[in-house]
Amino acid sequence: MIASITGSILAFEPISNQLQPFAIHNLDEISITEMVTALQSEYEEIIDVSVTNDDFVIASVITQEGNSETFYIHPSSGKKVGNLIEKEGIYKFATNLHRSLFLKSTGRFIVGFVSFLLLLIIITGTILIAKRQGGFKRFFSKVVKEDAKQYYHIQLGKLCWIPLVIITLTGVYLSLEKFSLLPNYKVTHQAVEASETAKKHIETANFSIFQNTMLAEIKTIEFPFSEAPEDYFLLELKNKELVIHQYTGEILSVYEYPIVALASYWSLLLHTGQGSIIWAIVLLLTSFSILYFMYSGFAMTLKRTKKQHIPKNIYKKSTAKFIILVGSETGNTYRFASMFFDALIANGQKAFITQLNTFETYENAEHLIIMTATYGEGEAPSNAKNFLSLLKKTSFDQKIKYSVVGFGSLMYPDYCKYAIDIDQSLQGHKNFEATIPIYKINNQSFTAFENWANAWADYTKIPISIKKPTANINLKKLREFKVIKRSRLNIDDTFTIHLQPVKKQKFQSGDLLSIYPEKDLIERQYSIGKIGNEIILSVKKHEFGICSSYLSQLSENDIVKAKIKRNPEFHFPKYANDIIMIANGTGIAPFLGMINENTDARNLYLFWGTRTKASTAIYKEILDESIASDRLTNLHISYSQETTQKEYVQDAIATQQNFIAQVLQNDGVILICGSVAMQNQVLHILETIIKSKLCMSLSDFENNEQILMDCY
Ligand SMILES: Cc1cc2nc3c(=O)[nH]c(=O)nc-3n(C[C@H](O)[C@H](O)[C@H](O)COP(=O)(O)O)c2cc1C
Q: Which residues cross the membrane (predicted)?
């Protein structure tokens, strides 16, 4: 943290230096000859000239008045442009802290070592991202956003990858150099005969080496100490050092710097940003990003360790009747497995819980309950990888009943694949017999888990009751929203509700409203449409839905406590000229608001799928007004339950191949909101269109943010 904070401060130094009037920005156009000529006309004698990494030219001269002075000059005129500036106090302080923590060699060692550790973290982080994305080839493909901190940790990691590697590598290199751990080298020049060459005396300004070398290439040039021919010009370039005869301009000796010296030079430039404002800004942003990595990394680890808490076993594995085996990468599945374990114990059952990788013989087991997540591309979590091979090796004397619960996410193509693999292996095993069919749970849905537990309890006749997790929310942080109006229930049990924040709040269509009904305080999110200063939500009332029932009973002026979550990945595109919105069911809500944002007459098309013509009633007024005001260019509604024209929204998209391809090609944007099932079907069709018409892949447009989604 110290290194990145001080690093951020130090990044300002080259930026401010480059902005100083002494910095010469066209060093690559001024030759040594031009400079030497100018200096010779201005001063009595020149001792040396050096060009700093920040493009300052410093000359040590004897003035016409006979004074010895050192100052910044302009190399074209030779004139003094300023006195040498001293490094500012803040930079001196930050440099010391950054390099050695004010602990001299010990501090230098710590900083160097930490830089090395950061390099290791970058390497392992890269491997983890590749593993997560399903291989190095997919390193830059779109990241599925499950958790904001994790998402930005990865995105920022990809963005800052190159500067991070450079900062750490050069940091390590500079430390090694300070501890003299790099190969040594000594600049040596061969002794040269100078006597006969002294005869062909030419003007310094006419030396071809001086005419052909620009100041951007040099570090220093030392002028001959006396007029004796054995005193030379010593020219230090970035890659070599030259000894030059002071009368003939002949190069008498060349010393090419070894790789170690060049690497030191470049390490310093790359690590400090000297000489380049752009690189210094990149370093500044990267230093900030390291602070974010620390914060998000810590937060994720903390969250994970909290979740990975596994209950203590009371019974031995050999005596337990119920064996719960868990496969989890980030701990969520443990949470569910623990709830189930607690419920069994509370019911007086002998249960034993462990990881899938420790699978073995269980002498008294009658029931096996397997709960596992899926990772990578349909692979096992790391604590479950060995299960299938262990299953083949392990032998049992008894028959065991089993149930498999898969935890996964519909956002991945291989939904709950590892649970399916396990289920298939158990099906073919003579010692195992299924209780209830494999159960798949999307996005850690508690309701789905409760349904499975109830089904399992019904089958086994063990009346367990799962304790709901207590909500982890700070009720004080919730804001008040007043109900402005609520529609009646539509034919398909959907309704709209208009809310207004009691206190001023910033929000936009596409953001999410998190509601926590008092009954269970579990978060439910609804996509927001913004009309004026009102929030419009579209809700489907489920028979036993706690939140949807609660919302459906609200009346005008009632107060709802909720929290707005910004969702910038699903806002109305700022620049696109053609925008296609695709929704089914209540997914129309954010689009009702976005239509209002189309004030500059861009082409806006809405494809919406609903059940029947009667389902449109509650939206009719808003949709009619949108068309009348020209904010919505075209509306296509697909009815899935009308006998005359049965069509799903994805069918409508499939008939518009040329149109879709054209919109994408013209940098248009497609927004999708509604059920995950619809999303998958639409994406499948879009992929076909993109492949056949544009010879590109879906992910190109996803990465380009031309396809935006918010499905549930
Ligand atoms: C990198 C990564 C890859 C995933 N791959 C899949 C997958 O292929 N199929 C799937 O159904 N779920 C996939 N998921 C979702 C997880 O299985 C799901 O979030 C699960 O509930 C996590 O449980 P855990 O916290 O116990 O590991 C993936 C999640 C991540 C972070």
A: 109-130, 151-176, 277-302
